[in-house]
Amino acid sequence: MTTLQSGHITTGTNTPTGTPMKVAVDNAYITKDSFINTFEAQGLGLSVNSPQYQNGELDKKILQASGWINRHCRRWFDTQTIDETKTGIQIRPYNPQLVSVVLKNRPYSSINSIYIQVLKWFIQVDVGQTGYLQDFPDKGFYRIVPLLSSAGTGVGSPMPAQIADRTQLAVLWTNYTFGYGTALTAQPLTQVASTSPANLQFQAPFGNRLWAPDQPLNVYENAVLTVKKYTVDYPNGIVTFAVAPSAPVTADFTTNESTPTEIQEACTLLVTHLIGQALQNPIGADSMSIQIFNISFGKDSKVEERAKALLEPYVDRSMTLIGI
Q: What is the pLDDT of residues 232-283, one digit of tens each?
């Protein structure tokens, strides 16, 4: 199966690294195996033998529901590494002040790099020194003093400090890793039965199959890092080799199945709603009545209200700004 990817934004390469800007994307919050084991899936009559499970349609609905959660909460919950920019940064080399930088996603696990962009030049802020940053990972912000600590890859400061002082000419670039995912090492991968051709697909244990696509993934044969070619189905934790590997097969990865229960439950409800509407109400009717029997669809089903109630503690209603 071809791994599903959410929509993406084409970004420019005028970045600190010279590579396209990394932006947050939608990833699944539940696996199709987890969904199949729910009461909701049983009510829909779905199983591992259902066409929707086997042809990728269930994966599509899970990704669609996960994207709805992200839009409603105005944030992402799976583990990702992204670039985030803030405008209106005042560089004060002669009058340094502590700046609080509020990030869109939390909790974050690491601030990987900070750059101040002036026009098309980048000045790197040293984040490697112990104690230089004041971190508040669970609150989603950090504090720095944005001094011109180095000049990036060029020679000298890109513009005189007197011009940069107290003027909002800068953009702050933060590369950070956030999310509720959990990094795991040396996890056994079990051969998937009835694969064609046989002996090529290996899957993570149930409960750890939702892999973070942009986090490190290492696959081993007999505890040695494999050099064989393979493809990865990240939403289902499956590695497919081009040539049969030597057992045992293990892997290091980050699983997103440690996201909050409310997020997973809301995703389950929304997937059930999407599939139920497609199967039972393809014309989009509000309700169906047969004598004394009545079924409500759409807004009358209250699924959206139930999902919103679960997500309420996670909705980000804060303003995106920089406090000084």
A: 999 999 999 999 998 899 999 999 999 999 999 999 999 998 888 777 666 5
Q: How many domains does the chain have?
A: 2
Taking a C-beta distance cutoff of 8 angstroms, is the pair 187, 221 a contact?
Answer: no
What is the spatial distance between Cα 73 and Cα 50, in angstroms, rounded to a whole number? 32
Closest CA to 268 of 26, 75, 65: 65
Cβ atoms of residues 96 and 166 within 8 Å: no
Token pair of 172 as six digits: 């702050």
Q: At which of 157, 178, 199 does a domain end? A: 178
Q: Cβ(303)–Cβ(270) under 8 Å?
A: yes
- C-alpha torsion angle, residues 123, 128, 133, 139 (rounded to 10): 100
Do 25 and 5 meet the contact criterion of CB atoms below 8 Å apart? yes
For the chain, give the number of residues.
324
Give per-residue pLDDT as tens, 66-103: 999 999 999 999 999 999 999 877 777 666 678 889 99
Last-in-domain residue among 178, 195, 227: 178
Range(s) of the domain holding residue 136: 80-178
- The answer to whether position 318 is within a domain reads no
Please state the pTM of the whole predicted model.
Answer: 0.86
* Residue 170 DSSP SS3: strand
